[in-house]
Amino acid sequence: MMQGNDGRKNSKKVLIPMYLLGLLIIGSLGFSWWGGLVNDPDSATKDSPGIVVGEGEAVSTEINLGDIANATGKKLVPEGRVNQSVGGAEANTESYTFEIPVTWKEEDGNGMTQGVTGIITATAGPVTTSSSGGADLINVDVATGQSITLDGAAVNVPVTVTMDEPATKDAYEAIKDATITFDVTVSVAKN
After folding, report:
1. For the CA atoms of 30, 32, 36, 42, what is the dihedral angle to 10 degrees?
2. 15: helix, coil or strand?
C-alpha cells in the first residue's frame, strides 16, 4: 500500500509541472495571436501613416496628451505660467502643437477619378480626463478646410492644445496629474 501512495504522489509531482508548462505555452501563443490583431493607434508622437479617409466616411483617432508630453519632455501649463512653474521653460509649455497626416484613398469600385480634390473637415471630440474634473480647462483647436487630392500626398492637419487657468486649488489638483485624451475626427467632402 505504501508503494501505491508514493506512485500517485510522484505522478502528481510530474503532472503539475506539465500542466503549468502547458498553460504557459497556450498563454504565450494567445498573447502572440492577440498582439498581431491590435493595431498601433495613430499617434502624433510617432512616425505613422496618420489618418486614411475613404469616400464618405469620417475617421477618428484618439490623442493622449501624455504621449505628447513624454515626446516633448514638457508639461502643459496655462498661458503666462511657464516661468512660474517648476522647471521653467525647459520643463513646461503653454501649448502643444502637432500635425496629423491625412490621406484620401479611393475605395474599390467607387468610380472616383484619381486627382479629384476635396476639402478636409476636422473636429475635436470631447476632452476626457482620468480624474473627476478638469476637462473643461483643456482647449483643442483643430485646423480645418485644407484642400486634399484623392490618392495624392498626405495633408497635415494642425492641432493646438492649450490649458485655461484653474480657478481654484481643487480645480488645479483635479487636472495636474490627470491623463487627458480627446478624439480628432476627420472627413473629406469632394469638391
Report:
1. 110
2. helix
Q: Which of 44, 144, 154, 46 is nearest to 105 (CA)?
A: 154
> DSSP states of 121-161 as a string?
EEEE---EESSSS-GGGEEEEE----EEETT---EEEEEEE
**pLDDT digit string (tens) for the chain, length 191 residues:** 445 555 555 555 666 666 565 555 554 444 332 223 223 333 444 444 466 666 557 888 889 888 888 888 899 999 999 998 888 899 999 999 999 999 888 766 555 676 788 899 999 999 999 887 889 999 999 999 999 998 889 999 999 999 999 998 888 888 888 899 999 999 888 88
Q: Which run of H or of E encompasses 97?
A: strand 95-104
Name which of 186, 9, 4, 20 is nearest 103 in CA terms. 186
Distance CA 58, CA 45 (A): 22
Residues in the chain: 191
Q: Which strands sit side by side in the sheet containing 138-142, from one edge to the other?
A: 51-53, 95-104, 155-163, 138-142
